[in-house]
C-alpha cells in the first residue's frame, strides 16, 4: 500500500512539474523576455546613428509581486530611459517610473509612455534587431530583443540635454 501511495505521489509530482521542465512558463506566445516580465508585440522605430528612438509594446508582469522598473540599458544607445508624454504634450523622463502589477498590462506606445534610446551608436534600420535590458526593484535584470520597423508616426519634437531638438 505504501509503495502504491509513493508511486502515485511521484507521478503527480512529475505531472505538476512537467510544464516547468518543458520550458512552458505560462507566458503567452509572441512575447520576449526570459523572466517574469513579458514584452508582447515589441518593436523599435528606425533611426539614424547619433539620434534617438522609441521602443514600444506591452509589458506584463507574470510574477506574483509588483515590480518597478528602476533602470534601462542598451548597447545600441548611450542613454536609455523610460519616458512619458504629459497631458500638455511635453515628452520627458517618467520621474515616478513605472510599477508593473501582476497580470496588468503596461503599454508602451508612440505618443505615450515608451522606452527612449538616445545617442544611438549606429543606425537602426528596418529589419534589424535591438536589444535592451530592464532592471527591476527586486534587483533582477531582464533582456529583450525587438525588431526595428520603419514608422512615420510619433514625430514629436524632443529636446535632448544639449538643447537640440530631434524626432523619434
Describe the fold and architecture:
The structure is a single chain. The protein is mainly beta and 168 residues long. It contains one helix and 13 strands; from the N terminus they run H-E-E-E-E-E-E-E-E-E-E-E-E-E. The protein has one helix at 2-21, and strands at residues 31-32, 37-45, 52-61, 67-73, 77-85, 91-93, 98-100, 105-108, 114-120, 129-136, 141-149, 157-159, 165-167. The longest helix has 20 residues, at 2-21.
Short description:
With 168 residues, the chain is mainly beta. The protein has 1 helix and 13 strands; from the N terminus they run αβββββββββββββ. It has a single domain, classed as PCu(A)C copper chaperone (Immunoglobulin-like).
Considering the chains and any ligands shown, give keywords for the structure.
11-stranded mixed beta sheet, mainly beta, disordered N terminus, Immunoglobulin-like, 168 residues, single chain, two-stranded antiparallel ribbon
Termini distance?
Answer: 69 Å
What's the CATH architecture name? Sandwich
Shape: globular
Query: What is the succession of H and E elements?
Result: HEEEEEEEEEEEEE
How many strands, which pairing sense, and closed or not: the largest β-sheet? 11 strands, mixed
Which consecutive residue ranges, at least 5 long each, have pLDDT under 50? Answer: 2-30, 157-168
**Helix/strand/pairing class, anyone?**
mainly beta
State the helix count. 1
Count of discrete structural domains: 1
**Would you tell me the overall average pLDDT?**
80
Give the class-level CATH name: Mainly Beta
In terms of DSSP E residues, the strand content is over 45%
Integer-rounded radius of gyration? 20 Å
CATH superfamily: PCu(A)C copper chaperone
Roughly how much helix do the residues carry, as a percent range? Answer: 10-25%
Enter the CATH topology name.
Answer: Immunoglobulin-like
Count of beta strands: 13
Amino acid at each position: 500500500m505504501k509503495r502504491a501511495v509513493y508511486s502515485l505521489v511521484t507521478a503527480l509530482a512529475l505531472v505538476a512539474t512537467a510544464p516547468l521542465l518543458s520550458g512552458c512558463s505560462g507566458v503567452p506566445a509572441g512575447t520576449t523576455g526570459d523572466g517574469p516580465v513579458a514584452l508582447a508585440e515589441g518593436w523599435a522605430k528606425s533611426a539614424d546613428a547619433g539620434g534617438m528612438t522609441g521602443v514600444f509594446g506591452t509589458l506584463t508582469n507574470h510574477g506574483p509581486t509588483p515590480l518597478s522598473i528602476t533602470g534601462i540599458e542598451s548597447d545600441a544607445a548611450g542613454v536609455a530611459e523610460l519616458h512619458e508624454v504629459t497631458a500638455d504634450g511635453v515628452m520627458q523622463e517618467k520621474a515616478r517610473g513605472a510599477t508593473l502589477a501582476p497580470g496588468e498590462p503596461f503599454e508602451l506606445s508612440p505618443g505615450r509612455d515608451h522606452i527612449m534610446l538616445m545617442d544611438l551608436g549606429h543606425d537602426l534600420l528596418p529589419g534589424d534587431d535591438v536589444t535592451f535590458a530592464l532592471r527591476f526593484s527586486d534587483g533582477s535584470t531582464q533582456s529583450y530583443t525587438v525588431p526595428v520597423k520603419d514608422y512615420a508616426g510619433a514625430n514629436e519634437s524632443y529636446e535632448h540635454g544639449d538643447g537640440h531638438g530631434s524626432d523619434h
